[in-house]
Structures are given as structure tokens and as C-alpha cells.
């Protein structure tokens, strides 16, 4: 029986770490893992959108996860996103993740071709079958994947005893209530509405901006759980303002976050991989302003 407590709390989505030539940087991966351990988060979600998975090879994704697990195994929850746009590569990553001892694997649906629900279920079950001793989490992100999870599809997937939950990045928070009604563990995806997701019953959150301000999101969840909703709302509003600032740069948001980490004295994760837009010189001022906003919010609320 899975101990579901390990899926409760704040789980940053892990950032892609590159060296100056744009190659995966194993040392930076280990440094970032230790950084998150020191911040006291519940775990990390490796190889998702923040990890730029769609722009990495199977070998690179294995290398990243291996170095995360070198530091994290037994010390915090690790969820490995293993989906590729074909079943064979996805199964290879799933089996590899299980061999390393991750807590769970996760997968978006196949993208580009619009597949019927039964084909999506087959894809997910085929991936799960490659890691038969590992929990499986559905990643619902219809705005990017082009297909949305439905109650009938979730019911079909829950026939697989390894399927334990949903990482829900759809914008309607009512989706969280629907997945909870089916008995799934649910992670809130959109960082801008963690508080709303918790109010709808989310067990925790997996977020792409958590890594830049984990204290704020950990504190927000704590205030929600202790009933201090006004303070939690203020913290959510501050987090949203910071996210809007991050998104105001010319460069990709994850490039901004990596610069924020450097400003904060955190690990150097390099840039982002093309075709994601790197920082311009003017973007460094945006990152500095966002970093200052984070410092002020942490000082005021945490």
C-alpha cells in the first residue's frame, strides 16, 4: 500500500541544468537537488515542462534523473516525468526511473496527433507496465498537450492499481474536485492559483515557479492548513505579482528563474535550450526586480 503522505506538500518542478555549451550539467543537477533539500520542500518533479523535457534526448533525461537520485534518494519524494511522443522511448524512461528507485512516474498524453481516449489509456498503461512496482501519475495540461483528461478516462485509468493521482495543470479549479471525487491524489499545477487549488481539495502542489520562492509557497500552504486564510491570500497575491514580473521579460520564464537563482546565491543552472528564448541584457533587470520582490515577500510573510 502506497504511503500517500509523501505526495502532500510543495514539490518544485526541477529546472534543466546546462553548462556553457548547452549540454546537461550533472554537477549543477546535483547542486540544485541539494538546494531544494535545504529549502525543506516535500520533493521534486523531474523532467517536466520546467525540465525542458521536450527538447532533451532520452539519454539526457536519464542523465538528469540519475544525478537527482544520487542526492535525493531516500531524502525526499522524487516524481519522474517520463513521457515522450512515442511509447517505446517513454517505456524506456519509465523502466530506467524505476531502476533508480523513484517514488512515482508521470506522463502527459501524446501530443500532436489527436488520439481517442482508448489510445491515450493504452499509451499510459503501456508506460506504467514498464515500471510495474512504481506509482503512476497522470499529467493533465490540456493547454499545451492539446487534449484534456475527462472523468471517463480517469475512471478507466484508475482500473490500473498503480495509478494514484493527477498532476492537474488545467486552469478550472473545479477539475480538482472532479478528480478527488474519483479517489485520486491531486496536485495543483497552476502556481497562480495554489490557494484556490488547496481550497478545492488538492493534496499539494507541483509548480514551475516554486523553485524561485519555495518559502512563499510552503508558507502559503501552512497558513491555509492552519486556517489563516487572509494571510494565505496575501501570499498568493504576492506570488502572482512576482510571476507576472517573471513573465514580462523577453526571454523565457525559466531563463528568468535561473537568473533569479543566481542572484539569490543558488546553483548556476545555465540558460535554456533553443528554441526557448534566452535572456537579453535588459531581462537581467527584470530578474533582479523579481528577486527583490521575492526577498521582500519572504521577509514580510515567512
Q: How would you describe this structure to a colleague?
A:
With 302 residues, the chain is an alpha/beta fold. The protein has a domain at 4-212: Aldolase class I (TIM Barrel, Alpha-Beta Barrel). 47% of the residues lie in helices and 12% in strands. The protein has helices spanning 26-39, 58-72, 87-100, 117-129, 142-145, 151-157, 174-181, 194-199, 214-225, 229-246, 253-263, 283-301; strands at residues 9-12, 43-46, 77-81, 104-107, 135-140, 163-168, 185-188, 204-207. It has an 8-stranded parallel sheet with strand order 1-8-7-6-5-4-3-2. Helix 3 (87-100) links the parallel strand 3 and strand 4. Helix 3 runs parallel beside helix 4. The longest helix has 19 residues, at 283-301. The chain is globular, with a radius of gyration of 18 Å. The model has no long low-confidence stretch (mean pLDDT 97).
Into which percentage range does the β-strand content fall?
5-15%
User: How does CATH name the architecture of the domain at 4-212?
Assistant: Alpha-Beta Barrel
Shape: globular
Radius of gyration: 18 Å
User: Could you say what the CATH topology of the domain at 4-212 is called?
Assistant: TIM Barrel
Largest beta-sheet characterization: 8 strands, parallel
CATH homologous superfamily descriptor of the domain at 4-212:
Aldolase class I
Low-confidence stretches: none
Total helical segments: 12
Give the N-to-C terminal Cα separation.
35 Å
Mean pLDDT: 97
Please identify the top-level CATH class of the domain at 4-212.
Alpha Beta
Estimate the helix proportion, in percent: 40-55%
Report strand order across the widest sheet: 1-8-7-6-5-4-3-2
SSE order, one letter for each helix or strand: EHEHEHEHEHHEHEHEHHHH
Number of strands: 8
Q: Structural class, from helix and strand content? A: alpha/beta
